[in-house]
Design a protein that fits this description.
alpha/beta; Rossmann fold; eight-stranded mixed sheet; 8 strands; 6% strand
Length: 618
């Protein structure tokens, strides 16, 4: 598995006095590049036009999303795409296969080397991947050096969402070659460059924008030169349904799997863009909440002196956390409003039928409340996707929270490798977003993230994550249990009231019949009892529906279990640290993070199975 690369440049620190820009915390669309080194000089203008068109189309399609190019800046294709990307105002991150002075030995002429150094100077960040063999072996060339190129190609394939390939279409099978990197992107990066996965697991893969490219050694590519094709993964997830399903047909009427796959990836990238659009739209109104969220995550002395590579995770977590809270409030308000409108519709028809038949507006209120409920649901929940935003943004925030504490504790695993495995297809954009923030975490395991903080790393992780989460889950379990109890009391109270009034109504009618009295003289009392009985039972049913949507019982059980998990983890980590067993503490924090990620995934699945909908049975 690729270990964290080391930074080759000084790390900028965040400052509490610096001015925050609205673009901080946005999720980028990461574009990787691979291609041939031996491009023909006469082909550069045409290739630059094709690459520029691809980048322009992506910018127009996802206007709120910053684009980042991931390129090792080898001669030829890498350099061409990097220059074009910088002309488009994109950020450039450069993962080098080896230390820069070793890498520069591969450049064939002085002009190419000058271009490389110029681009390195313009890069936002330069990362150096670790050597897989001795420096002498790498310097000598052969398989050891090829393995370094394979490693950097795997890094690019693993961390991008779209790969641009300037390729002649021939599969050479060369280690670290263009065709191998394309295979990595389409079919998944193998071990040891990525985590081992089950044979039944869907590989981390994505689309390849293939620019058909002649080269010096092969001027005749396998397709029309300078054409652009999109190559999709063989086993890419397919959307279950789509409004454009009829468009997925070829001329002979057969299904076109690439069309459905293309929409799937477009949907993932649009999720990124929607998150960024919401972040920009609500940037000023959520400023106070962001400051509060940052304070919950890290103490002031850390927030005042964060390394830039950790700042990316913290900034995105803060944005996702505050957006999740915002959309949670909106979701809850709409749920309460929908249930209230359903109750109002029943109340109006009951009053019209049994109490005051002369108040015609009550009759009109019945369908009006039902229609208003549907309109409110569509424009406040369905169309803006409010509930899914709340759930997805919460999942993103929690994943980044764990990523932050893992990095501080020296755990080098990426959350994206372990998160939302059972919800993989629909929530891929969350893992992509987490992996994009992980791009800037360029350090080796031995390097400290903390810039000489006053609170040591393990103490911070224990206090701000392990202890904090233990306390939160314990309190939340009690809180959710009490909420369920209160709603349960209300449900039973309304149910018993409905039964009692129904029995009273029956008793009244029976008594009047036995006494031979005219029931018309007591019609008002009968109507009141009937209305109270009906509304009590409707109120009980709506309260039960509210409790089910809020999942109080499930939360209470889930939180109680997680509170115990964090409590045990805290005791274990303190015990091993007291014995000086740092690696055991790392391992425990890693396992605790995996457990928390699994719980977050279950929480998302739980609430996705309880969507807020317009009440149709009133």
């Amino acid at each position: 598995m690729i270990t964290s690369p080391s930074r080759t440049a000084d790390v900028a620190r965040s400052s509490p006095d610096r001015e925050r820009t609205p673009h901080e915390g946005l999720l980028p669309l990461v574009i990787g590049v691979t291609g041939h080194r031996d491009l023909r000089a006469e082909d550069w203008p045409a290739l630059e036009d094709r690459v520029s068109a691809i980048l322009s189309a992506l910018s127009e399609r996802y206007p709120h999303t910053p684009l980042i190019l991931l390129s090792s800046l080898a001669e030829g294709a890498d350099t061409l795409v990097a220059r074009t990307a910088l002309d488009h105002g994109m950020r450039l991150i450069v993962p080098l296969p080896m230390r820069q002075d070793l890498y520069e030995a591969d450049f064939q002429d002085a002009a190419a080397l000058d271009r490389f150094r110029e681009l390195v100077a313009r890069a936002d960040q330069v990362l150096t991947l670790p050597l897989l063999a001795s420096e002498d072996a790498v310097r000598a060339g052969g398989e050891a050096r090829a393995r370094q190129y394979e490693q950097v190609g795997a890094y690019i394939a693993l961390h991008n969402q779209i790969l641009i390939a300037l390729w002649d279409g021939r599969f050479t099978g060369l280690m670290g070659g263009t065709s191998e990197i394309i295979r990595f992107r389409r079919h998944g990066v193998p071990h040891p460059y990525a985590s081992r996965r089950s044979a039944l697991d869907i590989a981390e893969s994505g689309p390849v924008y293939w620019v058909v490219t002649p080269r010096v050694r092969n001027p005749n590519p396998t397709a029309e030169p300078f054409g652009v094709q999109v190559l999709y993964p063989r086993d890419a997830p397919q959307p279950i349904s789509d409004d454009d399903e009829d468009d997925d047909r070829t001329e002979n009427g057969s299904a076109d799997p690439d069309a459905a796959t293309g929409r799937f990836y477009d949907r993932l990238f649009r999720h990124l863009d929607t998150f960024n659009r919401d972040a920009l739209r609500l940037d000023s109104s959520l400023a106070g909440e962001r400051q509060e969220s940052r304070g919950y995550l890290l103490p002031a002395e850390w927030n005042a002196n964060l390394p830039a590579e950790l700042e990316a995770v913290v900034a995105t977590h803060v944005v996702a956390d505050t957006l999740a809270v915002y959309f949670r409030r909106r979701t809850h308000r709409v749920l309460v409003s929908l249930l209230s409108l359903a109750f109002l519709s029943v109340l109006s028809v009951d009053l019209y039928a049994h109490v005051s038949v002369h108040l015609t507006p009550l009759l009109y209120l019945y369908p009006a409340a039902l229609v208003l409920g549907v309109v409110l649901w569509y424009f406040s929940v369905k169309r803006p996707d409010v509930q899914n935003k709340y759930l997805d943004y919460r999942a993103l925030a929690e994943g980044l929270r764990i990523q932050c504490y893992w990095r501080i504790a020296g755990v080098t695993d990426s959350v994206a490798e372990h998160y939302l495995r059972r919800q993989k297809s629909e929530l891929d954009w969350i893992r992509n977003g987490i992996r994009a923030t992980d791009l800037t975490l360029g350090r080796t395991q031995e390097q400290e993230v903390a810039p000489d903080p006053r609170l040591p790393a393990f103490d911070l992780v224990l206090r701000y994550w392990v202890e904090s989460q233990s306390t939160y889950f314990k309190r939340a379990a009690v809180r959710e249990h009490r909420k369920r109890e209160l709603v349960g009391f209300r449900i039973w109270g309304l149910f018993l009231l409905g039964i009692a009034t129904a029995i009273s109504l029956c008793a009244l009618v029976a008594a009047l019949t036995l006494a031979g009295l005219a029931t018309s003289r007591y019609e008002a009392a009968e109507n009141v009892l009937l209305v109270v009985s009906t509304l009590s039972l409707v109120g009980a049913a709506l309260s039960e529906g509210y409790a089910d949507k809020m999942a109080f019982s499930d939360h209470s059980r889930q939180y109680r279990r997680m509170g115990a998990v964090f409590d045990r983890a805290e005791r274990h980590i303190r015990d091993v640290l007291a014995k000086g067993e740092t690696q055991s503490a790392h391992d425990a924090i890693l396992e605790l993070g995996k457990e928390a990620l699994a719980e977050n995934g279950d929480w998302v699945a739980l609430h996705r199975g309880r969507p807020v909908e317009a009440v149709k049975g009133a």
